[in-house]
Amino acid sequence: MNIEPDRLTKKERHELILSEVRRSASIRISKLARRIGVAGETIRRDLIELGEAGLINRTYGGATISLVTSEPVIAERGLTMVEERARVGRGAAGLIERGRVLMIDGGSTTYEVARSLSQLGRDLTIITNSIGVASVAGANPGFRVILCPGTYDSREAAVLGEDTVEFVRRYNADIAIIGASALNAEGPSDMISGAAAVKRAMMGRSLSTMLVVTNDKFGRSGLERVCALSQISDVVTDSEPAAALRAAIDEAGGELHVFAE
């Protein structure tokens, strides 16, 4: 049974399209047009917009879900996007004021933020679950570094689990600095559920949240969504995202900081 097209806004059409694609994994334009009761050309325009926002992969005559199914371990990620992550790290560090309390989660890009911060003469308190972040931040004598307890995960060189989350909830911070496996119009996501839980715990104890990501994360979906875009105060990256994702960030109220070459 078709849905009455006059009763559907573009947003409602997009939500219905996403629901159909998720249910079927892939779907044809002709089927979507019959289901929603609009012209195929309307569906094609909708798919273009959803594709630019990173919510689907467009295919010939249809669409599939855009999903990240695996991610290299942190040591391997550290060998790619080197200059891009360094720019993000320097840019994000430059936004941090003296005397702040920061929560920084594990990841190759958040490590670069910590490395850049450690080179600046600022008194900071850093609470982290990352061995690498703690090590590089601890090299600065002006920093107070608090390392979370938990179960060590060699993939991320970080501690995760209930003990980590409970420990984070004991503290208050000015800014949570988090990374992500993927970023689209629905928000950042991560491939490791334990890491996503720590990110959410840090966000819950911080006045604001800074997301640091390189452009290879744009338009993708990870296993578990961390939060909505509206919960992110600042997005720091190395390249301008596609128009649809940029619009979603602006609409959510976040501030985009692009540190390009």
Automatic annotation (TrEMBL):
Instruction: Cite the GO molecular-function annotations of the record.
Output: DNA binding
Would you say which domain of life the source belongs to? Bacteria
| Alphabetized UniProt keyword annotations | DNA-binding, Repressor, Transcription, Transcription regulation
Where is the HTH deoR-type domain positioned along the sequence?
A: 10-65
Protein's UniProt keywords contain Transmembrane helix: no
Classification via InterPro entries: Carb_Metab_HTH_regulators, DeoR-like_C, DeoR_HTH, NagB/RpiA_transferase-like, Tscrpt_reg_HTH_DeoR_CS, WH-like_DNA-bd_sf, WH_DNA-bd_sf
Cited SMART domains: DeoRC, HTH_DEOR
Task: Quote the PANTHER family the UniProt record gives.
Answer: GLYCEROL-3-PHOSPHATE REGULON REPRESSOR, HTH-TYPE TRANSCRIPTIONAL REGULATOR SRLR-RELATED
The name this protein carries in UniProt is DeoR/GlpR family DNA-binding transcription regulator
Instruction: Name its species.
Output: Mesorhizobium humile
Please spell out the taxonomic lineage of the organism that makes this protein: Bacteria, Pseudomonadati, Pseudomonadota, Alphaproteobacteria, Hyphomicrobiales
